């Protein structure tokens, strides 16, 4: 990461560049205010000729936001506030003394790590898709071009046939990053061979898995990589039109996408006769309206056509008959963003990364009960342990790791015993999960696995389109059983019943939503059956989550009688004298947990 | 309303695939989908009103009642869930005195949940009028909702 950023004004060089992260996470932590304050301070000190502030896309380390990289020194500043700005400018920019108190300290350590390249979170990452992350301003096409952007498109248009492009993508081993892992080159080939003169391509940016934000981040940090990948794909397939189907909940990504498309058109990189090659391609943005099922190809197509987004039987596959009955190729954001690098650096190079069956890298959002939450890109074949403990920095507050959930509502969980499993499409399937789009949700001892299964089924129940009875009714039936178990009304036969329902839902539903819906239940049953049994047989929730099965109690040895909990309790049912141990009226307790949250001495116990 | 409606519709051709963008723009303008608008859209696109409702009721984005000035969305994504989103929702409900899906009588606040806003690295989070507020605690919630007094009570 020693490279400096490209300047949009080639004649100008700067002594220092301050790269402020402007991904959704850091923006919510006021990174734009910090940028404004920095610019004002730099101007006031008369440094604006030698120093420039660059707003970049998501740098990935959301947990430490707002973050800033100081180049050329490569210093990583974190958790900045506007008040830090004068000190930072005075010390680092004027006196040349980096400011230690704004640097990163690892979760288990007390020494600062000044350089980004030395921080564990970044060290094990391998940036291919996110190659421009944090280095360019995503709203400036010149910066993308200065880092070899659109060179792959030029190479394809000036010297390769469509068939050659498809062969390169096939040889690279790239597989669909939306979750199913279908080989991208083969998919392109099928659409290319199909009959039809209105072929089109679609970028699926409807990122529906809760707990995942890879696609949002890629578009926010490097939108041109996606556009370039699509233009190359369109050339290979023979499509003139493209669509980006993007989630409504991502306003910042949408804005950057529109800016990128306008700039690409202005530069003649989209539109008629691109680079004088005679090839024409343009694209339109379609905002999704919040339906998980639209991640399914045939639903997404129905949605684009203005019909109710219900999936239909395949075949015919979209490659034969998709949008308006024309051959259509759909890939997700991350898949498209891989394409330019594969063309530039070659299939052989790409295939040298990863495992036998899964080539290249994968972007994951590492979130939940883990110290270093954020977005990471790692080579396929890395172990879950390396992601959670080396990159993720382990579990906060000294808690015990319990599981990682992959693949969202269609996926499953990986328990501690499988942490050393190398991650690829096949191995995740073998243990009852899936790669999915890349959400990794880390769970600790305080997460109840029965409750998590119930949570996913609740999500799927409301997102089922209702077309297939097994999906519509079966998921609801499974959810109700899980809700009963969580409410202390579980019966021993429930476990078998869940298994039977799972089989029916998965076998008799048309699309992948129903087909994979039982996975969260099957996988928690497989790896955490003891928790189900504790709920059903002992009427206990070992994680202390399910309210019907827990009681709150105050440990008299730890309670100092500070009365914080007494004041916080919404029901006013914690009693006792000041400076003496308090007691909770367990009969009247609504188990909201506010007392536990307010206690500074860990004196509130859940049993 | 009629003028605003026809000015929006005049920028479209009346094709079926324009239904979602039209609904989105009208909701953007009015904050919800008024009954009259639904009828006008159906006429404009030459489809039965039931088809327009079929689309609009399918997606979580669309609503048929006006919303308050501050549109509060509590994220129910998995990362937020494992870090206490249920408690966040309860707290917001308590602070605003309304349940999920409701609007306060003074039309100041509306409360909804959302499947995921993609700020998972900063969970649990909420969104107020498209602005993400991260790492919610009871205290942060009272601050961002401007409900300081309510919390003291």
TrEMBL record, chain A:
Cross-referenced Pfam families: 2Fe-2S_thioredx (PF01257), Complex1_51K (PF01512), Fer4_10 (PF13237), NADH_4Fe-4S (PF10589)
SUPFAM superfamilies hit by this protein: 4Fe-4S ferredoxins, Nqo1 FMN-binding domain-like, Nqo1 middle domain-like, Nqo1C-terminal domain-like, Thioredoxin-like
Keywords associated with the record: 4Fe-4S, Iron, Iron-sulfur, Metal-binding
Every 4Fe-4S ferredoxin-type domain range: 550-579, 580-607
Gene Ontology MF terms in the entry: 4 iron, 4 sulfur cluster binding; metal ion binding
InterPro entries cross-referenced by the UniProt entry: 4Fe4S_Fe-S-bd (IPR017896), 4Fe4S_Fe_S_CS (IPR017900), Nuo51_FMN-bd (IPR011538), Nuo51_FMN-bd_sf (IPR037225), Nuop51_4Fe4S-bd (IPR019575), Nuop51_4Fe4S-bd_sf (IPR037207), Thioredoxin-like_sf (IPR036249)
UniProt xrefs under PANTHER family: NADH-QUINONE OXIDOREDUCTASE SUBUNIT F
UniProt record similarity statement: Belongs to the complex I 51 kDa subunit family.
Name under which the protein is recorded: 4Fe-4S ferredoxin-type domain-containing protein
Species this protein is from: marine sediment metagenome
TrEMBL record, chain B:
Keyword entries, A-Z: 2Fe-2S, Iron, Iron-sulfur, Metal-binding
InterPro entries: NADP_DH_HndA-like, NuoE-like, NuoE_dom, NuoE_N, Thioredoxin-like_sf
Listed cofactors: [2Fe-2S] cluster
Gene3D superfamilies: Glutaredoxin (3.40.30.10), NADH-quinone oxidoreductase subunit E (1.10.10.1590)
The keyword Disulfide bond appears for this protein: no
GO terms, molecular function: 2 iron, 2 sulfur cluster binding; metal ion binding; oxidoreductase activity
Pfam families membership: 2Fe-2S_thioredx (PF01257)
Similarity-based family: Belongs to the complex I 24 kDa subunit family.
Protein name: NADH-quinone oxidoreductase subunit NuoE
């Amino acid at each position: 990461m020693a490279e400096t950023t490209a300047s949009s004004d080639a004649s100008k060089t700067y002594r220092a560049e301050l790269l402020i992260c402007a991904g959704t996470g850091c923006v919510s932590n006021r990174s734009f205010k910090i940028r404004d304050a920095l610019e004002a301070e730099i101007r006031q000190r008369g440094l604006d000729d030698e120093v420039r502030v660059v707003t970049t896309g998501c740098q990935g380390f959301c947990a430490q936001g707002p973050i800033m990289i100081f180049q050329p020194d490569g210093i990583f500043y974190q958790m900045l506030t506007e008040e830090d700005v004068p000190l930072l400018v005075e010390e680092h920019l004027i006196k040349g003394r980096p400011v230690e108190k704004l640097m990163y300290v690892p979760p288990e350590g007390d020494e600062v790590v000044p350089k980004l390249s030395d921080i564990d979170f970044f060290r094990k990452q391998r940036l291919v898709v996110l190659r421009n992350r944090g280095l360019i301003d995503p709203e400036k096409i010149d910066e993308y071009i200065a880092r070899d952007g659109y060179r792959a498109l030029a190479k394809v248009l000036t010297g390769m046939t469509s068939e050659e492009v498809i062969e390169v993508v096939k040889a690279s081993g790239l597989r669909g990053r939306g979750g199913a892992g279908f080989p991208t080159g083969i998919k392109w080939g099928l659409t290319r061979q199909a009959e039809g003169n209105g072929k089109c391509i679609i970028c699926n940016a409807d990122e529906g898995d809760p707990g995942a934000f890879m696609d949002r981040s890629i578009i926010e940090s490097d939108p041109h990589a996606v556009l370039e990948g699509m233009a190359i794909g369109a050339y290979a397939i023979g499509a003139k039109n493209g669509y980006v189907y993007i989630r409504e909940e991502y306003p910042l990504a949408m804005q950057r996408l529109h800016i990128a498309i306008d700039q690409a058109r202005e530069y003649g990189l989209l539109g008629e006769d691109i680079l004088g090659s005679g090839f024409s391609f343009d694209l339109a943005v379609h905002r999704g309206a919040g339906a998980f099922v639209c991640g399914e190809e045939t639903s997404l197509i129905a949605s684009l056509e203005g019909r109710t987004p219900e999936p239909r039987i395949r075949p015919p596959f979209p490659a034969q008959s998709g949008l308006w009955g024309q051959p259509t190729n759909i890939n997700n954001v991350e898949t498209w963003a891989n394409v330019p690098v594969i063309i530039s650096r070659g299939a052989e190079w790409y295939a040298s990364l990863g495992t036998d069956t899964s080539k290249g890298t994968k972007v994951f959002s590492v979130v939940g009960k883990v110290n270093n939450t954020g977005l990471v890109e790692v080579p396929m074949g890395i172990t879950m342990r390396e992601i959670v403990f080396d990159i993720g920095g382990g579990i906060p507050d000294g808690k015990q790791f319990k599981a990682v959930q992959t693949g969202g509502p269609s996926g499953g969980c990986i328990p501690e015993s499988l942490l050393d499993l190398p991650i690829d499409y096949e191995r995740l399937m073998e243990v009852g999960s899936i790669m999915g789009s890349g959400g990794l949700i880390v769970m600790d001892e305080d997460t109840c696995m029965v409750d998590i299964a119930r949570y996913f089924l609740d999500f799927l129940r409301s997102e089922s389109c209702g077309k297939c009875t097994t999906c519509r009714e079966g998921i609801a039936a499974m959810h109700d059983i899980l809700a009963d178990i969580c409410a202390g009304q579980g019966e021993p036969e429930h476990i078998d019943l869940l298994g039977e329902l799972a089989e029916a839902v998965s076998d008799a539903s048309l699309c992948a939503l129903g087909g994979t819906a039982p996975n969260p239940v099957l996988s928690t049953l497989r790896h955490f059956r003891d928790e189900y049994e504790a709920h059903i047989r002992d009427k206990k929730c070992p994680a202390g989550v399910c309210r019907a099965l827990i009681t709150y109690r105050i440990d008299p040895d730890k309670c100092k009688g500070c009365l914080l909990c007494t004041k916080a309790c919404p029901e006013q049912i914690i009693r006792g004298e000041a400076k003496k141990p308090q007691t909770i009226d367990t009969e009247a307790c609504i188990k909201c947990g506010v007392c536990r949250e307010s206690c500074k001495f860990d004196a509130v116990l859940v049993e | 309303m009629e003028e605003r409606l026809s000015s929006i519709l005049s920028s479209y051709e009346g094709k079926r695939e324009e239904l979602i963008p039209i609904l989105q723009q009208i909701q953007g303008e009015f904050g919800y989908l008024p009954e009259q608008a639904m009828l006008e859209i159906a006429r404009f696109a030459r489809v039965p009103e039931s088809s327009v409702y079929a689309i609009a009721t399918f997606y979580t984005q669309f609503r048929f009642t006006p919303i308050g000035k501050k549109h509060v969305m509590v994220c129910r994504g998995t990362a937020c869930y494992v870090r206490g989103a249920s408690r966040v929702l309860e707290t917001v409900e308590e602070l605003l005195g309304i349940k999920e899906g409701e609007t306060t009588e003074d039309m100041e606040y509306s409360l909804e949940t959302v499947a995921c806003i993609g700020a998972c690295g900063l969970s649990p989070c909420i969104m107020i009028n498209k602005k993400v507020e991260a790492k919610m605690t009871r205290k942060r919630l009272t601050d961002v909702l401007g409900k300081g007094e309510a919390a003291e009570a």
